[in-house]
Write a structure and sequence with these properties.
- This protein is mainly beta.
- The chain is built from one helix and eight strands; from the N terminus they run ββββββββα.
- Strands 1-2-3-4 form a four-stranded antiparallel sheet, with no helix packed on it. Strands 5-6-7-8 form a four-stranded antiparallel sheet, with no helix packed on it.
- It starts with 20 loop residues before the first strand and ends with a helix.
């Protein structure tokens, strides 16, 4: 009998990230923070009845091997992320670029060594966002 295994990271949301934040991006109720350890934390922005803004932990994206240097949230084809057409695009110190589902944190595309050197910012082109990544 053949068996397969599934490895799923378990995340405890009871403490703040232990690594320094290197970049932050906000779009329509979502905040994403890139960390020095290569992790990306995605939060939902919630405004309570008194107008106080709170960040609610939503997703932890694990995949980069070096510090996150750039993030952007953009509309694009989400490859199966039902209910939302936003994706997160991240870049790290080693030139790696990744595309993530904003809803569940799945890595949709990974391009190792997309560029030589460090990517400092990402600006999607409205006409090319789906074509490039």
């Amino acid at each position: 009998m053949a068996s397969s295994s599934l490895v799923v990271p378990l995340v405890l949301w009871n403490r703040l990230p232990s690594s320094p934040v290197t970049t932050v991006v906000y779009k329509e109720g979502h905040v994403a923070t890139g960390l020095k350890d290569g992790f990306i934390w995605i939060y939902r922005c919630i405004v309570d009845e008194q107008g106080v803004i709170q960040l609610q932990h939503k997703v932890l994206c694990i995949g980069h091997k070096s510090a996150i240097t750039a993030l952007t949230i953009t509309e694009g084809h989400t490859d199966g992320c039902v209910g939302n057409n936003y994706v997160l695009i991240s870049a790290s110190e080693d030139g790696e670029v990744m595309k993530w589902c904003l809803l569940d944190g799945r890595c949709l595309v990974c391009i190792p060594k997309a560029f030589d050197g460090m990517i400092r910012s990402i600006k999607p082109l409205a006409t090319c966002a789906e074509v490039l990544i």
